[in-house]
Every structure is written in structure tokens, then in C-alpha cells.
Design brief:
Number of strands: 14
Strand order of the largest sheet: 1-2-3-4-5-6
Order of helices and strands: EEEHEHHEHHEEEEEEEHEEH
Largest sheet: 6 strands, mixed
Distance between the termini: 37 Å
Bound molecules: zinc ion
Number of helices: 7
């Protein structure tokens, strides 16, 4: 398995491509604001994106998923609780002062407990509401090793905003405590923005999770 994370778009959203190198099958996480970059990387490596999954429906994460799907032919998935937010893409674009990408019909839903597979890749879906109602994290599993992709739920030393509609700080902290902190201290965490961290470092030092 190979996991590549790289920032895309004006808000430097961390996009991740995870691939099973044997079969060449891949899952793209939050690639909608990096259509060219994601497509170029897939082509360069000879990987095929089976699934285009999203931690939530903010424009920097979901962006122009319709065009990404045209390039990759992957299935685009989102948690249903974020579908109303996805419909506000045009409004989100005006906040950023960018052109609005089209809202497209997605191919399916992500739900807590779902297991996504592409080749030997395995992603467990964890519903972690709080930043948005439909925010999810992904546990990328290979053998005994797990990497957590936490979107805008958990950052290194911080947590995502909870004031963007319909959620509270208690929601996001509860999601982190019940869905993410049960993982071992050594578990790497790749957040939706900024540097990587581990569950142990966040458990010990993240001010939102202490006390
Ligand atoms: Zn967000
Ligand atoms: Zn974001």
C-alpha cells in the first residue's frame, strides 16, 4: 500500500491518494479541489481510482468532484448528512471569491461502519460529526497498521471549526473521543489541513482534548 498526501487548492486542503500497488487500485480522499494534480499523479503511477471519497462537503474538500470523476471514472461518495451542505457549493464559492464548480449527482453514500475496498486496500468509515453534520474520518488499514485521515475534525494541536452550522464544540469533541482516541497512541493522523500528527500526541497535548 502506498499513501500519498499533498495540499491542493487555495486553502491547502490535504488530499490523499491511497493505492494498492499490486492491483493499481486506488482511493482518492478529498481530491475535488485538485483535479489536475490528482489526475496527473494517478496517470504517472498507473493507478486507477475506484472511489472518490470525501471527509465532508466544504468546497476545499469536495470542490469540482464532477470533473475529477470525468477524469478518473471513480465513484464519488459523501455522507448523506452533508448533502445539504454540498448543495451550497455556489455560496461557499462566493465566500472564497472563486468560481463555483457545478453540483453533480453523486454515486453513493458513506455511512459509519462501512468498509470500502479497492484491491487490497481497506478503509473503515467513521462518522465523526461536529465540523459538519456529515463529517467522516477514514481508518486506512493494511495488516496491523492503521492511518487515520481525519478531515477537518482533528488537526495537529487543534480541532476543526464547529460554528459553521448545525453542530457544536461538544459534538466534535465527542466524535474525537469516541471514534478516534480509541486508536493506539502510535496511530498516524493525517488531518485535512496542516502537518501530520499521532493519536498519542493529540491525546497528551491537544488543548481541546485535555480535561
Ligand atoms: Zn471544512
Ligand atoms: Zn478544510
Amino acid at each position: 500500500m502506498r499513501v500519498e498526501t499533498f495540499p491542493v487548492g487555495p486553502l491547502a486542503c490535504n488530499c490523499t491518494i491511497a493505492a494498492d500497488e499490486k492491483s493499481g487500485e486506488a482511493i482518492v480522499v478529498d481530491g475535488g479541489d485538485g483535479v489536475e494534480e490528482v489526475s496527473a499523479r494517478l496517470k504517472r503511477r498507473g493507478w486507477h481510482a475506484r472511489l472518490l471519497v470525501h471527509t465532508h462537503a466544504h468546497i476545499d474538500h469536495v470542490g469540482d468532484v464532477g470533473r475529477l470523476r470525468e477524469f478518473t471514472h471513480g465513484k464519488a461518495l459523501l455522507h448523506p448528512a452533508d448533502l445539504p451542505l454540498y448543495q451550497t457549493l455556489a455560496l461557499q464559492a462566493t465566500w472564497l471569491g472563486v468560481e463555483a464548480p457545478p453540483v453533480v449527482a453523486l454515486d453513493g453514500e458513506l455511512h459509519d461502519g462501512d468498509v470500502l475496498r479497492a484491491g487490497a486496500l481497506r478503509f473503515d468509515v467513521l462518522h465523526t460529526p461536529g465540523h459538519t453534520p456529515g463529517s467522516v474520518s477514514f481508518a486506512v488499514r493494511e495488516g496491523d497498521a492503521t492511518t487515520l485521515l481525519t478531515g477537518d475534525t482533528l488537526f495537529a494541536g487543534s480541532i476543526g471549526r464547529w460554528d459553521l452550522g448545525g453542530t457544536s464544540m461538544e459534538d466534535i469533541v465527542r466524535s474525537i473521543q469516541t471514534k478516534l482516541l480509541p486508536y493506539d497512541d502510535a496511530t498516524p493522523v493525517v488531518p485535512g489541513h496542516g502537518p501530520a500528527t499521532t493519536i498519542g500526541v493529540e491525546r497528551r497535548t491537544n488543548p481541546y482534548l485535555l480535561g
